[in-house]
Amino acid sequence: MFISETKVEVRYAETDQMGIVHHSNYVVWFELGRTHLIKEIGFNYAEMEAEGILSPVTDIQVSYKHPATYGEEVIVKTWVERYDGIRVAYGYEVINSKGQICVTGESSHCCVKKDTFRPISIKKQLPEWHEVYEKIKK
Amino acid sequence: MFISETKVEVRYAETDQMGIVHHSNYVVWFELGRTHLIKEIGFNYAEMEAEGILSPVTDIQVSYKHPATYGEEVIVKTWVERYDGIRVAYGYEVINSKGQICVTGESSHCCVKKDTFRPISIKKQLPEWHEVYEKIKK
Amino acid sequence: MFISETKVEVRYAETDQMGIVHHSNYVVWFELGRTHLIKEIGFNYAEMEAEGILSPVTDIQVSYKHPATYGEEVIVKTWVERYDGIRVAYGYEVINSKGQICVTGESSHCCVKKDTFRPISIKKQLPEWHEVYEKIKK
Amino acid sequence: MFISETKVEVRYAETDQMGIVHHSNYVVWFELGRTHLIKEIGFNYAEMEAEGILSPVTDIQVSYKHPATYGEEVIVKTWVERYDGIRVAYGYEVINSKGQICVTGESSHCCVKKDTFRPISIKKQLPEWHEVYEKIKK
């Protein structure tokens, strides 16, 4: 299993009046982790979109363990939790500088054509991605 | 079971380059639905916080079915899915004007003291909330 | 001068650890006010975009007077501050329920073709918009 | 004049349906640039807040020149544009990898007590900050 690590500096704008990071922001950090994983395995999500293929989220799940706060730097660990040729599920772990797990999570994705939002088979339409995802998945 | 309905007008800033609402925003809409449900059953979350009790999210889950888009008005349906005196889980459904389900979801919460983030028992510390939650839960 | 009024309920996610609305959110509320003004004068920004014309922001200015807080409902007043056939500047005032001015601001916009981001003349390309903007401007 | 440089990777969630970064996000990037400048001159904004002093924004101005897009890395240049012992104005420039100026901007700030939001004199209450700000200002 390949694990990508992304450093994220907590932004002031990401806090809320509880004094901690608002829970919706971890979903944005997951996306950042995903972008990095894709780049590290040799692909580019921006280019895939430019070629007319989108990869929308179909499901997301987050468990909050320990709040992250402004001024901290956290690490988003991202990996391919499941892959079957059509759907990809990424796993995530956000860890603070003390090694505490802030959140764990998972997001599921399919690939669709930009114009129609019709699902496509990653295995058939993106054989190079398929090969690599098979290799790096958990 | 009591179901609260909140109208949400999709904001331009909530869209992304897919041309649809970015998936992190539904988490914010759920929070809006929760605030309304609490108000409709006679309580006020802002006041509870002012009195030193917070209700952080411990888990969140979202399933994306149909994209919402700018210019639309959607309805967030919110209800108490589970309640046991300590934890509350709210259920959500976001529905567009054609009656299509855009997303479904669930969020779990506990109550903690503002100063220490130590969990408290809703049943013991907030007996009035307890009574109502018992009544309206699914 | 025509003034549009938009009610905005302050969202929890819009607060920051100062316990007030994070200053970036007023920029989002201005956009909401703008969308409403355009609708009230009989047009539809979403449709204009669908026809290939965008109206990006070229300048924005905000003065913060009094913080808005979670649980409040504020009103965003929006009007056409200046219009010359090519550029539109909207003026804004955000007012809380006590009548206090929270922020004042202004945003400037041009119109561009979606494909090229090349500026177009509103007067020539959108004569119906031109006529109304001339009428309602300050 | 001291200029701080902060790298910012454009996030997918920061784009809107125009296919470019939504204009409200530059305001968030400015804040990130400010945090870094403060750190680089030897202070820590998070600690200042922990000691009961906040530095809210009183005015903000942004001029949009060239859109930033997902997949890019931009640089936020931040400096002290003006300082008079009570108010600080920071200047900003966001530059893309081709050297194009995406936006320029300015934000003004005062310092207030956390409890009361009453303004304080930086010169008197924070003499160490005062000394450095006098040195590095434009």
TrEMBL record, chains A, B, C, D:
Origin superkingdom: Bacteria
Gene Ontology molecular function, alphabetical: fatty acyl-CoA hydrolase activity
Gene3D superfamilies reported for this sequence: Hotdog Thioesterase
Pfam family, one: 4HBT_2
The entry's keywords: Hydrolase
Iron-sulfur recorded as keyword: no
Signal peptide coordinates: none
InterPro entries the UniProt entry points to: 4-hydroxybenzoyl-CoA_TE (IPR050563), HotDog_dom_sf (IPR029069), YbgC/YbaW (IPR006684)
Matching CDD domains: 4HBT (cd00586)
Family: Belongs to the 4-hydroxybenzoyl-CoA thioesterase family.
Protein name (database record): Uncharacterized protein
